[in-house]
């Protein structure tokens, strides 16, 4: 068997090809990317998708984790921000000027034999990561050439979008049969590109319901904390000091235990990823704290849902929390994270964003206190919004699946 294909499923039924940023590398789990893909797999399997092929960075893990056929990505990640090389790579794939053992061959074949192509949810459509736009635009062009319906689901668009990337993105979105975005800002950006999109909550919002975890939760009421090593324009030392002060005040004022859990973190071994800054903050705190290392996206979702409060500069801990009515405070460090966190909170009736400058100015304790005092109202509103968002999400996946079914029956 070729090294770029790992197959675990042989089945008949609706055939779907999808891309998401899946496949742990170097023993590191990226919770949000895996969560969105997993939610898509569950939703579409429940609607008749019995054969799913996913583009992945770790074929064995993805095939085993989701029970799918896993094939290698198209290779744009290796090109980074080299636009000329990416344009050439895209041209070569679309014109068939690739070697027989190029991993793209498997992708082309999978698309040509598919009933539906889905670009799974993610924050990839930004000039921060142009390789993601190239990869998805190439996959979309392959779907168009093969006459296969295309869905772009649960995306953040921009806010940083250079002109060449804007043109490429607009072409991709115009070729899609359905486009879903997860924030009002992304909806407005799509409209500016002349694209009619649908706004709904992040695709992984209800993963805790779709894939319940049996992993034990902390045996005490807790505040879940997830912090990224990306601290924007702030020096790491000042960010750590401000975060430690905030969390000490949270623990003292709420009586909650403070539990850190990484969004991008290792399955085992020494701290890496988010855990590096977590350990720095824990060392700077006066209050005691603990850690919880998730082994899957489902475990991470359950951990957020089980919290009494979530404080996070990462996106998906907030997504998991607010869909269960859990009060959350987002700490954005740049325009991109502001767009995402504001959108995630707003979709479920929350608005507690603590900008970086406010964190450094020690405004956080007052904001958290207000959130904590209003926790009952936040929960009531959040659960009502969750009911509405769940219905909208179900309707979205019904529409997505119907596209694949229409190909089968045509």
Write out key terms for the chains shown.
nine-stranded mixed beta sheet; single chain; globular; Rossmann fold; 2 domains; five-stranded parallel beta sheet; alpha/beta; 410 residues
How does this model look, in words?
Helix content is 48%, strand content 17%. It has two domains: 5-199, Rossmann fold (3-Layer(aba) Sandwich), CATH 3.40.50; 215-385, Glycogen Phosphorylase B (Rossmann fold). Strands 1, 2, 4, 5, 6, 7, 8, 9 and 10 form a nine-stranded mixed beta sheet that branches. It has a five-stranded parallel beta sheet with strand order 14-12-11-15-16, sandwiched between helices. It contains 16 helices and 16 strands. The radius of gyration is 21 Å and the shape is globular. Helix 9 links the parallel strand 11 (222-226) and strand 12 (257-260). Helix 3 packs parallel to helix 5 and helix 9 (236-254) crosses helix 10 (274-284). The model is unreliable at 6-12 (pLDDT under 50). It has 410 residues and is of the alpha/beta class.
| CATH architectural arrangement of the largest domain | 3-Layer(aba) Sandwich
Largest sheet: 9 strands, mixed
Number of helices: 16
Strand content is: 15-25%
Integer-rounded radius of gyration: 21 Å
Termini gap: 33 Å
CATH class of the largest domain: Alpha Beta
Mean pLDDT across the residues is 95
- From the spread of the alpha carbons, the general shape counts as globular
Tally of distinct domains: 2
Helix content: 40-55%
Number of separate strands? 16
The third-level CATH topology of the largest domain is Rossmann fold
Regions with pLDDT < 50 over 5+ consecutive residues? 6-12
Structural class: alpha/beta
Assembly type = single chain
